[in-house]
Amino acid sequence: MIPLSRSSTPLDRNVGDAELAARVAGREEAAIRLMMRRHNQTLFRTARGILRDDAEAEDAVQEAYIKAIGAIGSFRSDSKLGTWLVRIAANEALGRLRRVRRGAEVIRLESDAPVEAEPATETADPAPSPEAEAMQTEARRIVEGKIDALPDAFRAVFVLRAVEELSVEETAQALGIPEATVRTRLFRARAMLRESLARSMDQAIDSAFGFAGERCDRIVERVVARLQTHPPAGT
Predict the structure, then answer these.
(1) Where does residue 48 fall: left (phi above 0), alpha (psi -120 to 50 degrees), or beta otherwise?
(2) Calpha distance 166→82 (Å, rounded)
(3) Is residue 230 classed as helix, strand or coil in its secondary structure?
(4) Which residues 6+ apart lie within 8 Å of 152 measured at CB?
(5) Of 72, 91, 155, 169, which is the most exposed, with the fewest CB atoms less than 10 Å away?
(6) Range 13-16 contact pairs with CB under 8 angstroms and sequence separation of 24 or more
(7) What is the pLDDT of residues 152-193, one digit of tens each?
(8) CA separation for the pair 199, 114 (Å, rounded)
(9) Which pLDDT tens digit goes with each residue over 114-141?
């Protein structure tokens, strides 16, 4: 094991991939910390999207970093360090998923669906009010649950493309699949999410303003209590 070192040369927070990788290869602690902080969210979302478990995803990311640091000498500066790291994290997560499923193929899919153009990015809404933030939190919880329910192949692509906003090329490189397959899986994932969310919305509308149960009992008891203490005129 090579111990971590402390370089006498200051580390620029905006250092480029090539220099950062070189300093990570030299086991500079500051460089390793910067690399991890720069890419932690992307790698966690990648692993989480595949494994659907926070703790497992954290373990996968940690192991991916250990492997990446050990193999940093194979990184080529003509590619993005982030894409290279995502590929390692995705492979680690997929490997864990395969072991859990005892060798089941995780991301095999026939690409027979038509590919349509991806919708344009919508303009961001103004800063929400506290009430809107609460609604967004609940909506995010529901959407995350629906994403978790996607089949493995679609979920991995959706997280990288729609959540992390990697390009089609970067996603293909990270998952080791053709770019056409990335487009097809993203199209299918969005279609499945729309259908699933629509069903949830229909169910929510059917049960909106529910009155049975505690609320019904409470009003009944209050009315009865008032009648007993203050009978209406004419009785």
Answers:
(1) alpha
(2) 10
(3) coil
(4) 50, 97, 106, 107
(5) 169
(6) none
(7) 888 889 888 888 888 899 889 888 889 999 999 999 999 988
(8) 23
(9) 334 344 344 455 566 666 677 667 777 7
d(CA 168, CA 172): 6
> All domains of the chain, ordered by start, with CATH?
17-100 (1.10.1740.10), 130-206 (1.10.10.10)
Cα separation, 49 vs 154, whole angstroms: 10
Q: What is the CA radius of gyration of the chain?
A: 25
Tell me, what's the pLDDT at 151?
A: 86
Distances from the Cα of 58 to the Cα of 96, 108, 144, 151, angstroms: 12, 25, 17, 21
Segments of the chain with pLDDT less than 70: 1-3, 5, 7-8, 101-132, 135-136, 204-213, 215, 224, 227, 231-235
Say what the pLDDT of residue 28 is.
Answer: 87
- Who's near 81: CB < 8 A, 6+ residues apart? 17, 20, 21, 35, 39, 75
DSSP states of 89-125: HHHHHHHHHHHHTTT--SS-----SPP-PPPPPPPPP
Task: Give dist(CA 160, CA 72) in Å, integer.
Answer: 22
Q: pTM here? A: 0.64
Type of residue numbered 142: I
